[in-house]
Amino acid sequence: MAHTRNTRLAAAIREAGWSQEQTAQRFARVARESGAAELAGTTRSHINQWVRGVQPSGKAPRILCETLSRGLGRVVTPAEIGLTTSGGAGQAPWSADPLSALTDVGGKDLDMERRQILAGTAYSVAALALPDATWWEQAPQRARERRPVSPRTADAADVDSVREMAAFFSRRDQRRGGADGRAALVAYLRTDIATYLSGRFTTEQVRQKMFTAAGEMTYLAGWTAFDASEHGLAQRYFTLALRLAAEADDAPLAGHILRAMAHQAVDLQHTRAAVDLADASLQQGRYTQASAREKALLGVVHARGLAAAGRKKDALDALLRAEGDLTNARSGDDEPGRVWFFAEASLAHETACTLRDLGDLAAAEREFQRSVRTRRQQTFARTHSVTLGYLGAVQARQGSLEAACSTWHQALDAMGGIHSGRARQTVVQMRRALSPFRGRGDSTAAALDARARAALGRVG
Question: CA-based angle 311:314:315, to the nearest 5?
Answer without folding.
Answer: 80
